[in-house]
Specification:
Elements: H1 3-19, H2 22-36, H3 41-59, E1 73-77, E2 98-102, H4 118-137, H5 141-144, E3 160-166, E4 171-178, E5 185-187, E6 211-212, E7 223-227, E8 233-246, E9 249-263, E10 272-275, H6 283-286, H7 288-291, E11 294-298, E12 306-310, H8 311-315, E13 322-325, H9 335-338, E14 341-343, E15 345-350, E16 353-354, H10 360-363, E17 367-369, E18 376-379, H11 380-393, E19 413-414, E20 421-425, E21 427-431, E22 436-439, E23 445-449, E24 452-455, E25 457-460, E26 464-466, E27 475-479, E28 484-488
Parallel strand pairs: 4-10, 5-9, 17-26, 18-25
Antiparallel strand pairs: 1-20, 2-3, 2-12, 3-4, 3-8, 5-10, 6-8, 7-8, 8-9, 11-12, 11-27, 13-28, 14-17, 15-16, 15-21, 19-24, 21-22, 23-24, 27-28
Length: 494
C-alpha cells in the first residue's frame, strides 16, 4: 500500500468515525483496505485493531458506548439492573411535591417487611391485568347484548406510596398511588377487620371537621364496597373532611372512603388508596378548582424517592416534555367515563429499528397508561415482533438456562453472570403527535439475579397496558382538561 493510499484511507476513516459508530467504522474501513491491499490478512487485522482503538479515542466515547437516539444501544452496568437494598443518600426526588417511594423499597420506611417473591409480584400483576381485560372485553360486540357492568370489582393494589392527611388537626396516612382507581380511602376506627400491615387508622371522633356520609350531591349512597383483583377488599362508609396534601394545599369537604372492613394484602405499611383516575370522586376531580385537573409523577427506583406534583408545580415541567393526546376508551363517549387514561400507541423501535407494527394492532381496544400494572402488556402480535427483535439485538449474550418457574410471565431472559456491562438495545414507544418515549436500563430489563435478567414486557390478548416498570424515573404529566399526557426523562433527579 502506497503512502498516499494510506493517508487517504486514514482521512476517510477519521471522517467516517465522526459520523458513525466505532463498529461501523471498523467494518467499512477494513473492507476498503482489503480492496487496496488484498493479500495481507494479518495487516488487515492489525490495522483494524489500531483503527478501532484510535477512532474511539478521538471521539472520547467507549467502544460499545451509545449516544441516546443515535446508535440505539446503551452500554449498561449489569449491577445497575439489579435491585438495591439501601436507600441512596443522593435520593432527592420529592424535594417539591409529595414524596413517592416504592412499597417494598428501602426508602419506604418499612424495610422490615419481607418483599414479595417474583412469583407473588407476577401473580398480583396478572390479577390486575385480568381484571382490566375483563372490564374492556365487556364492550366487545359479542358481549354488549348481555352486558351487566360490575362496579364493585377493581384492580390489584399498586406499588408506590405517598403520604396525605385527613381531618382537623391533620392525621397522616400512607396511601397507594393508583391511576386506575377513582375512590380515595383509608381505614378508620373502629374497624371490624383491620389491615395487618397498616400502622394507622383515621379516628373521626378526633377531627373537628368530619361529617358522616356523602358531600357530593350526585353520589349514589353513603357506603362503598371495593374488591380488588387479588380479592383484597375495603368496605365502609363515605365521610367528608379536610384533606391536606401539602401545607399550602388544603381541601375542605373532601369525600373519601372510611374503611371499616378491610382484608387482604395491600402491602407494606399501606393504609389505603389514593385514587388518581378520572372518576367524579377521584382526587384529581375533587381538587380541580385549584389544580385544574393537572398532576405529574416520577415513579422512583427502589433505592430513591420520586415526587407527585399537582397544578402549577406539575405544569412548570411541561416545556421539556413530549405530549400525546388522551383519547376515548372503548364503550365511552367521554374521557372520564372509562376511568383509565387512554393514549394512541403507533409503533415500537428496538435499537433504532422500527418494527413497523400496524397501528391497528394497538387501536382496539386501545392503550392505557397505568401506575399499578408492573410489566407492560402488548397485544400478542406486537409482543412477538418485539421479542424477536430484542433476541436478535441480544444475540451475543447467552440465554438463561434456568427453569421458568410457575407463574413467571417473562419468557425472554439472559444469563449475564460474570459480566460487568451489557450492551442493551434501546426500546422506543412511538405515541401519537410524535411523542417518542425512550426506554433503557431498568425500563427494559427486569430481574433479581444476574443469571436471569429478562425483557420487561409480556404478551396480552388485545389491550395494551403501559406499566410502571417502563415509567420508572420518567416524568409523566397528566393534563386532563388539556386532553394530553406528557413524557420526559430523568424526572426523579430534578
Amino acid at each position: 500500500m502506497s503512502g498516499y493510499s494510506l493517508l487517504f484511507l486514514y482521512i476517510y476513516c477519521l471522517v467516517l468515525r465522526l459520523t458513525h459508530s466505532a463498529i461501523t467504522t471498523e467494518s467499512l474501513c477494513v473492507r476498503f483496505m482489503a480492496i487496496l491491499c488484498p493479500s495481507t490478512a494479518i495487516y488487515h487485522l492489525l490495522f483494524s485493531s489500531l483503527l478501532l482503538f484510535f477512532s474511539c479515542y478521538v471521539s472520547a466515547i467507549p467502544v460499545y458506548g451509545a449516544e441516546e437516539g443515535k446508535d440505539g444501544f446503551h452500554s449498561t452496568p449489569v449491577s445497575s439492573l439489579l435491585p438495591k437494598n439501601k436507600c441512596s443518600a443522593s435520593a432527592r426526588g420529592g424535594s417539591q411535591g409529595l414524596p413517592i417511594t416504592q412499597k417494598y423499597g428501602p426508602c419506604s420506611g418499612s424495610g422490615h417487611s419481607q418483599p414479595p417473591s417474583p412469583q407473588e409480584i407476577f401473580g398480583r400483576d396478572e390479577s390486575r391485568v385480568s381484571f382490566i381485560n375483563s372490564k374492556f372485553n365487556q364492550y366487545a360486540p359479542e358481549n354488549l347484548k348481555d352486558h351487566t357492568p360490575n362496579n364493585k370489582l377493581f384492580d390489584e393494589d399498586g406499588n408506590f406510596l405517598v403520604d396525605v392527611a385527613f381531618g382537623t388537626p391533620p392525621q397522616k396516612f400512607t396511601l397507594i398511588l393508583d391511576t386506575g382507581s377513582s375512590i380515595t380511602w383509608t381505614q378508620c376506627k373502629p374497624c371490624v377487620r383491620c389491615l395487618k400491615a397498616s400502622r394507622r387508622h383515621f379516628d373521626p371522633s378526633a377531627s373537628l371537621t368530619y361529617s358522616l356520609g356523602s358531600c357530593i350531591p350526585s353520589t349514589v349512597g353513603n357506603t362503598y364496597n371495593m374488591t380488588y383483583g387479588d380479592k383484597s377488599t375495603s368496605v365502609g362508609n363515605y365521610g367528608c373532611d379536610t384533606m391536606t396534601l401539602e401545607h399550602s394545599d388544603v381541601f375542605p369537604k373532601f369525600q373519601f372512603g372510611c374503611g371499616r372492613n378491610n382484608e387482604g394484602d395491600f402491602g407494606s405499611g399501606a393504609d389505603g388508596m389514593l385514587g388518581l383516575g378520572q372518576g367524579q370522586l377521584s382526587t384529581v376531580s375533587q381538587t380541580a378548582s385549584k389544580f385544574k385537573k393537572v398532576f405529574s409523577y416520577c415513579l422512583p427506583e427502589e433505592d430513591s424517592i420520586g415526587s407527585l406534583l399537582f397544578g402549577e408545580k406539575a405544569t412548570s415541567q411541561s416545556s421539556s416534555l413530549k405530549f400525546t393526546s388522551l383519547v376515548n376508551g372503548p364503550g365511552t363517549s367521554g374521557l372520564e367515563e372509562s376511568g383509565y387514561y387512554f393514549v394512541k400507541l403507533l409503533d415500537i423501535s428496538v435499537g433504532n429499528k422500527r418494527l413497523n407494527i400496524p397501528s391497528s394492532v394497538f387501536a382496539s381496544p386501545g392503550t392505557i397508561i397505568d401506575s399499578g400494572t408492573v410489566i407492560t402488556r402488548l397485544p400478542q402480535r406486537a409482543y412477538s415482533a418485539l421479542k424477536a427483535a430484542f433476541k436478535k439485538a441480544m444475540a451475543k449474550y447467552p440465554l438463561s438456562n434456568g427453569r421458568r418457574k410457575k407463574g413467571d410471565i417473562l419468557d425472554t431472559c439472559y444469563n449475564l453472570s460474570g459480566r460487568k456491562d451489557v450492551l442493551l438495545p434501546e426500546i422506543v414507544l412511538h405515541f401519537g403527535e410524535g411523542a417518542d418515549v425512550r426506554l433503557n436500563g431498568k425500563r427494559v430489563i427486569w430481574g433479581n439475579d444476574a443469571s436471569r435478567l429478562c425483557l420487561a414486557f409480556a404478551g396480552n390478548s388485545e389491550l395494551t397496558i403501559i406499566g410502571n416498570r417502563q415509567q420508572v424515573s420518567l416524568t409523566v404529566l397528566y393534563d386532563i382538561q388539556g386532553g394530553r399526557i406528557g413524557f420526559g426523562g430523568n424526572g426523579c433527579s430534578k
